[in-house]
Design goal:
The complex is a heterodimer of chains A (115) and B (109). By secondary structure, chain A is mainly β. Chain A has strands at 5-7, 10-13, 19-24, 31-37, 44-50, 53-56, 65-68, 75-79, 88-95, 105-106, 110-114. In chain A, strands 2, 4, 5, 6, 9, 10 and 11 form a 7-stranded mixed beta sheet that branches. In chain A, strands 1-3-8-7 form a 4-stranded antiparallel beta sheet, with no helix packed on it. The chains are: A mainly beta (115), B mainly beta (109).
């Protein structure tokens, strides 16, 4: 396995358009996380899944944001009616629950630019 | 509330030693992570501490004091490639990571 992958790597869209990002985690990992990161800041947690169950979504930034993980494998993050403030790096991470160490492995991220 | 504090930026000289501090206040504690992030890239795992004390891994060491809500990352024999941001993150009672804003480390020759 080559690690966590994300597509696309870069997305430029016009304000008001919808965008969808995909994350493929490390195959044996059961947890999948979505983060947003802006310049000079640490990752900001958005949501996470354990297998196909979305266990936390209250920190999604608004009702324009939604995420799915339909079969407990890959996940998608959708942003509807994008705004310029949505411009950021969107990071996906996965982990394997074992003991108390939940080390997260990150994908390369999707950089979104809203014009 | 939950808070992770670390310096915004530090500068050090190639070959020297630097210590990056992190203080935290979180709801629950299930370990503290340090990640390295080069500009434009994803964070990569460096270390994990859940018990008090020092964990050494090559040129990098990480220390934790749970009673003081304090950790540091120690980097020895600095190399130019160590120029990056270093992120402190605490795993809370729900096993979610609470992240600091990161410390940008600049290495000068």
């Amino acid at each position: 396995d080559t690690g966590v992958s994300q597509n696309p790597r870069h997305k430029i869209t016009k304000r008001g358009q919808n965008v969808t990002f995909r994350c493929d985690p490390i195959s044996e990992h059961n947890r999948l996380y979505w983060y947003r990161q802006t310049l000079g800041q640490g990752p900001e947690f958005l949501t996470y899944f354990q297998n196909e169950a979305q266990l936390e979504k209250s920190r999604l930034l608004s009702d324009r944001f939604s995420a799915e993980r339909p079969k407990g494998s890959f996940s998608t993050l959708e942003i509807q009616r994008t705004e310029q403030g949505d411009s950021a790096m969107y990071l996906c991470a996965s982990s394997l629950v074992r003991d108390s160490l939940y080390e997260q492995y990150f994908g390369p991220g999707t950089r979104l630019t809203v014009t | 509330g939950q808070n992770i504090d670390q310096p915004t930026e530090m500068t050090a000289t190639e070959g020297a030693i630097v210590q990056i501090n992190c203080t935290y206040q979180t709801s629950g504690f299930n370990g503290l992570f340090w990640y390295q992030q080069h500009a434009g890239e994803a964070p990569t795992f460096l270390s994990y501490n859940v018990l008090d004390g020092l964990e050494e891994k090559g040129r990098f060491s990480s220390f934790l004091s749970r009673s003081k809500g304090y950790s540091y990352l120690l980097l020895k024999e600095l190399q130019m490639k160590d120029s990056a941001s270093y992120l402190c993150a605490v795993q809370d009672s729900n096993y979610q990571l609470i992240w600091g804003a990161g410390t940008k480390l600049i290495i000068k020759p």
